[in-house]
Structure formats: C-alpha cells, structure tokens
Amino acid sequence: MEDPWQKAYDFAVAVAKKAGEEIRKAGESEIRVMTKSSTVDLVTKTDERVEKIIIGSLKQEFGEGTHCFIGEESVANGEPCILTDKPTWIIDPVDGTTNFVHGFPFVAVSIAFAVNKQLEFGVVYSCLEDKMYKARRGKGAFCNDEPIQVSDVKDIHKSIIISEHGTDRSPEKVTKIFSTMQKILCIPVHGLRGSGTAATNMCLVATGAVEAFFEIGIHCWDIAAGAVIVQEAGGVLLDVDGGPFDLMSRRMVSANNDVIAKRIIKEIEIFPSTRDDAPTKKK
To answer: Which of 233, 178, 204 is nearest to 96 (CA)?
Structure first.
C-alpha cells in the first residue's frame, strides 16, 4: 500500500531547506525588528516572509483548502490556533528570532504535520549550522540523514539539562523560573544550558548532547516538530506535572528517559500559562 504521507514529509524537508536559505540571506542584510506581546517578544519581516513562503509552497503543492495551518505569525495576526482531525501543518518559520536579530548562531525552521491530532512527522532545520533534523512516526530520527539517538544516562548527576527564560518578564514568573533552575543545578547536575530555540533544544536531546529540556510558556509551533524527533530518537515527553504530554498546554519536559524526566519534574515550580487553544477574548 502506498505511504500516504511520504510525499508530504519529503516536501517538508525541501521547504525547510528553502526557508533556511531565505533566513541566512536575510541575516546578511539589515534586519527590521518589531515586537509582539512585549518588548522582548521580537518579530522581524523575515519571520513573516518565511512563513508566507512555507505556507504558500504547501498550498501550491497540496491544493488550497485541503490542509489546515497553524503558524506562529498567522496566530499572532489573529488566526485561530485549533488542532482538529484534519491534516494540519504546525509551523514556526524562525524559531529563535531574538538569536537571529543578535547574530547568535542558533536559528531553526520548524515544520510538523499532524493528522487526527496525532503528529506524523517533524522537520527542524538549524539553518545557520546547516543541520537538518527529521523524523517520521515509527521510522526513526535523523540529522543530515544519519540516525540519531538519545543518551543512555540515567544518573541525574551526570546530566546536562537545557531550558529557556521565555519572553514573560513578570517578576513572579521569572522568580519561579530561576528558582527551578537553581534547584536543578544544585541536585547537582553537570550543567544547565540554553540555545535560545526550543526546536533546537529538543534536537539536542534527540542527539544525546543533553539529557533533558523543559520549559513553561512555549507554544505548539515551538515544539511540535521536535516532539516527533525526540520520541523517534528514543526519548520521552511529559507534562511538567508528570502527566501525559499535551501539545497545546504550553509546557513540557522532553528527556532521554523517564528516570531523568521524573527527577527534573520534582524540582519544577509550575506557574500558569494560557493554553494555545484557549478561546480568544472578543474585543
């Protein structure tokens, strides 16, 4: 029987590569910076242009109206963020916009595809490194076509953990974020790191470079592709309270195994974050 999604998977890889080339080219010229929800939540014309390139290419290839789209910039401009049973593309055109603006060399294109609310594949192109991470459900994970696998570390004291500060600067949340980091660092672990892009962080878990990544306040487009890659590399995904992973919850722990994940969860100070699929308030 013909594989129904292989064509879509291959096309997603090609589109991610094309988008990454656009980002690299834009980084060599003047970058016009704007803000979204706050002065630290940045967006550039490149974000918007690259998302249009990705969605436009997908619509041209698969037909207008056949697939749904959840894109970071589209949602910021008022489009709904609802995952249905229909074939749905979940896109972050420039994951790591602040990095991009400052020339910090971790910027990724993240493209995931879901059917019946189940993630079928994920593609993350770390374009400044020229690393193409990809995975299909049940078929393994790869970086530049070489198989990747999570680390086999089970001793938390021998682990490196990765996380981010997010873009919410409210003192209460920042206090909880740094308190959690302090508690994890003092377990102790070998170190705490952060690349500035959730998609890349998840790929670092998948390659075994770090043992876990956790964050509260991320969005579905940040982690959808990485979620497939981590799982196909042998890793696990959990909610920060230890429950099942929920793509729309805006919080997650991804790790090489349950032992590391559950040890980290003991230290996480949870704070509220509005779900991605929460009804928007009418103005």
So the answer is: 204
